Amino acid sequence: MANDDVIAILGYFTITMKSITFNDAVSKSLRKKVTSNKNADQAIGYLIGQLGKSDDYTEYISGQELVKNCIELIYELFDKLGGRFVLIECENHPSFIGFYERFDFKVIQEDVYVQLYRAL
Length: 120
What we know:
The protein is α+β, with helices and mostly antiparallel strands. The chain has a single domain (11-119), classed as Aminopeptidase (3-Layer(aba) Sandwich), CATH 3.40.630. The protein is 29% helix and 33% strand. The protein is built from 3 helices and 5 strands; from the N terminus they run E-H-E-H-E-H-E-E. The chain is elongated, with a radius of gyration of 16 Å.
């Protein structure tokens, strides 16, 4: 990365809004935590849709730094637009779930993927 003519992409993430529909297994208390309405069938939140880093530059950024940068940007959006939570969807694998739990994400439900949320 010493060459000023080269732009290296160390990592990337995408943020969008997503509506989720709660399945029957989601308790009323969890629905209330996420939406403030225990009878809610749906919720809209920020979705971290893509998250990845380049294998060529692993020494320059960690997955933890990438998630922290993403969450910082979401808090900037939250200050301007509001919202209640951040959502991540991942494969049902203990290492993926454990990685996101380190950032205070909690499993909300399993659909095609496991959906985890973090309150704002």
